[in-house]
Structure formats: structure tokens, C-alpha cells
Design goal:
With 197 residues, the chain is mainly beta. It is 10% helix and 39% strand.
């Protein structure tokens, strides 16, 4: 009888831990394909020489996967005299960490993965990052990589997070910045499959 009780308890414990293991973080897309409901965040946080940046969210020019990708043109004309430009993907649109209910809780994610290519190759991105927006309700994390020199071919990059990162509030879900110094002629780049995993 005791052996049966021990076996039953052991099975319950095993099932409990198996159940916990199945509750893993599900992919959370910043961008999957043009204007899909599964996309989160909006590329409204244009910074620096904001007049130098043009964003097309449903370009059909050789997407990495699916029907479309994001096309970004940077003219490097220094329209505002800053000599750099960048874009934050924000939640909700135009939220510079000013809204208490802004952002997403992405607890459980271990990294952000994305694909990028340059139109010509050699385009230099100063940094790609997650979080880092400051305001009344700031992002709870900041992770980045860079500088990154692009190729003409699609390449996957990853922004890894610490062990047990604090991702309770991320109003700035994705960001990139580039300078006129590194790209005097400007550039055209493409992004696709931006996802938290």
C-alpha cells in the first residue's frame, strides 16, 4: 500500500513539473508580416534627423519570409542638424514611456531575434536595442548590440538578455540608430521577423 502511495505521489510531482515546463514563453512578434494582428509595437518613435527617415511596413522587395518586410530609407541629409537618426517601435504609438499602461510585460523572454539586410551591403547600424526609454514610466530593461555592418543577404541577429531579466514593462520594443558619419550617402535597409523568444 505504501509503495502505491509513494508511486502516486511521485507521479503527481512529475506531472506538476512537466506542466510547468510546458508553460514556456510563446513567440511575441514585433513584426511578422505587413500589418498582421500578431504584430506588436508601432515604429512611431523617429529620433534625430527624423525627416531623413522613411518607413514602409509592407514592402514586397525580397522579404526574408512571408509576403512582406519593413523597408527603411535613411537619406543622411541631416534635416534637423543632428547627423544621426533612429526609430523606436513603441507601445502604444508615440509613447515615450509617458503612459502608465503603456508597453508590454514580456517576462519569460530570453532574447529578441530579427533578420536584416542592406540594399547594397556595407551599411553600418550604430546599434539595435530593446528597451531603454526613459520617462514617467520607464522601460525596466535595456539590451543592445552594435555597431553592425550589414550584408546584401539576409542575416539573423540576436539580442540576448540576462538570466531572469526584468521585462515587466517595455514600451520601446525594438530600436535602431545610425549616423551620417558611418553612412554619408544614406542607405536602404530591410527588416523582417522581429520576435521575442
Amino acid at each position: 500500500m505504501k509503495k502505491l502511495q509513494v508511486a502516486a505521489v511521485s507521479m503527481m510531482v512529475a506531472l506538476f513539473f512537466l506542466g510547468c515546463g510546458n508553460k514556456g514563453f510563446k513567440p511575441f512578434y514585433v513584426y511578422k508580416d505587413g500589418r498582421l494582428p500578431m504584430n506588436h509595437y508601432v515604429p512611431t518613435g523617429v529620433m534625430g534627423d527624423f525627416g531623413d527617415i522613411t518607413i514602409i511596413e509592407d514592402s514586397t522587395e525580397n522579404p526574408q519570409e512571408g509576403l512582406s518586410c519593413i523597408k527603411i530609407t535613411y537619406t543622411a541629409k541631416a534635416a534637423s542638424g543632428q547627423r544621426w537618426a533612429g526609430v523606436y517601435w513603441q507601445e502604444p504609438a508615440n509613447n515615450w514611456a509617458k503612459l502608465e499602461k503603456g508597453g508590454f510585460d514580456l517576462t519569460g523572454a530570453t532574447r529578441l531575434v530579427f533578420w536584416v539586410r542592406g540594399e547594397k551591403g556595407g551599411e553600418t547600424i550604430s546599434e539595435f536595442k530593446v528597451g531603454g526609454m526613459q520617462g514617467d514610466f520607464p522601460d525596466t530593461a535595456l539590451y543592445n548590440i552594435g555597431p553592425v555592418v550589414l550584408t546584401k543577404e539576409w542575416k539573423e541577429y540576436e539580442i540576448p538578455f540576462d538570466v531572469n531579466p526584468n521585462l515587466k514593462r517595455l514600451a520601446g520594443g525594438f530600436c535602431f540608430a545610425a549616423s551620417q558619419k558611418d553612412n554619408p550617402q544614406g542607405f536602404v535597409i530591410y527588416l523582417d521577423n522581429i520576435v521575442y523568444r
